[in-house]
Amino acid sequence: MTTVLVCAVACGASLLTFFSGFGLGTLLLPVFALFFPLPVAIAATALVHLANNLFKLGLMGRHAERRVVLRFGAPAAVAACGGAWLLLRLAGLPALATYQLGGRTFTVEPLGLVLGGLIVFFALFDLLPAFTALRFGARFLGLGGLLSGFFGGLSGHQGALRSAFLAKSGLDPEAFVGTGVACAVIVDVVRLAVYGLDHITGPLGILRAEGGANLVVAATLSAFAGAWVGRRLLHQWTRRSMQRLVGAMLLLLALGIGLGLV
């Protein structure tokens, strides 16, 4: 059941990513967090996210607009270092509170509250018209890179802001996807480097010990399948109804993470 759930989310979220420019890390992190400690879930999500972005880069990279990638990706890489550094600091802070519910003990941690708040924020991009219609001119690409890179380094939630800033760059649909995935790969590589081997191999060791390594591989292959299908449906689907559904799910998941339920 665990494998089915994770693979279904990975495939569906990867498919969604082709239309929205974001979704895989946003949805997959809370699902991994249902079965593993939050730092382990973050590491597992980062690996699936990077592998899927590299796969999409192979599919769409030739359509990337290099000028936009440079203007957006360079500041994003710098800011991702700061976001990843903050993540490591938050992960080391003591718990804020514990409480009992249904005979179980739950812990509210600073990292969980921050990630829950971020997921709420990015869910608004899916739910509220004022946010879904938000667009920025091309002159703000550098600022967009800084903001997207920082949140990408902190929690992996970089796509919503990236899409908002790239949407007004005069890119056709294929160039939009190719440019976005190129920028995403830059941030993923930087944040994994900042997390360092200790913060990647440690969680991966826990994954292996609990039989989760196979789950990461299965999720990665499922994400590949979703990306492959999305490539073929790129010009056929609209995304508004999907955004609303995803946004509602994110609000519930963010509440669970913030309260230490997941």
Explain what this protein looks like in three dimensions.
With 262 residues, the protein is mainly alpha-helical. The protein has helices at residues 2-20, 24-33, 38-60, 66-91, 110-127, 129-132, 141-155, 159-166, 173-209, 213-233, 240-258; strands at residues 97-101, 104-108. Strands 1-2 form a two-stranded antiparallel ribbon. A hairpin with a 2-residue loop joins strand 1 and strand 2.
Strand percent estimate? under 5%
**Oligomer classification:** single chain
Q: Any idea how many domains?
A: 1
Euclidean distance between termini CA atoms? 17 Å
Uncertain runs: none
Give the strand tally.
2
Tally of helical segments: 11
The coarse silhouette is globular
Strands of the largest sheet, in order across it? 1-2
Rg, Å, rounded: 17 Å
Helix-strand string: HHHHEEHHHHHHH
What is the share of helical residues? over 70%
Query: Mean pLDDT score, rounded?
Result: 77
For the sheet with most strands, the description reads: 2 strands, antiparallel
Structural class: mainly alpha
